[in-house]
Task: structure prediction
Amino acid sequence: MKQKQNIIFFGTPEFAAAQLENMIQSGYSVVAAVTASDKPAGRGKKMQQSAVKTVAIQHNIPVLQPEKLKDSKFITELESYNASLFVVIAFRMLPETVWRIPYLGTINLHASLLPNYRGAAPINRAIMNGEKITGLTTFFIDDKIDEGKIIKQLSIEIGNEETAGELHDRMIEEGKQLMIDTLDSIFDQKVQAKQQSQFMNQDSEIKFAPKIFKDDCRIHWKQSIDQIFNQIRGLSPYPAAFTSFKSSDGQILELKIFQTTVEKNIPSEKLFTIVTDNKKYLKIALTDAYLVLLRIQQPGKKSMEVSEFLRGFQISSNLQIIFD
Result:
């Protein structure tokens, strides 16, 4: 075992589960995992456990699934493990009565270069805003959301056409060594955490990453083509950007759009014209280029390449975008 100190891990999705697995494989003593309650999912509404719970069970680690984090029984149970450190990744906000329990503190791994992109959706928002650089940050949790002292950071370039899902998967791998380096520095008593104010640029405002809501996913076609392109890849594959079209006879076509590319030719067609050969391509004429749709999805159907979609759906020449 690496160190004698015990860790309690808090997290729910795959992003957190991968770090939990890596911590265990690296020899850290994780004595309990706290995660979300099992929830019904899919058409059959079968109960589904979180990715963190799956990893914990595989390693015979006790799993705690409290409904309320301030519940006295839950807090007493946490205290009974005598953990020296809590690690929180992709979990809900902890009350002070919880994060103050371990004597070494409670740390978090956040998917941005703090202080920028504090909030629930840092990966999505960074891409939606057209950022070229993002990163990962480990920091000590305090009484403010994502504002605690920074322990370590790692910069990560964002690919020109990279989606949120692709960046998410890369961050899982990039975060593994960052987390181990962070744990080593804490347990070796070499950590030198710094206030986030030391990372702030006085000439620019802090950017935030609030939760994604439905209106954030609706494509606003009167934006620039770069903004639309970034919105689509920043929301792919989940929750996904969407739009609606209407034919002259009143039929509505709703689509989620997962992947596009920009064709840099000046359109000869009228602005917002939908251009297709009804075989291989589907694109939309915008101000100074075409937005080419590559992967889409109709309600109730699987996502598919545009060429596959066009084999089963003929686009009429009078189809028009429904604007917000």
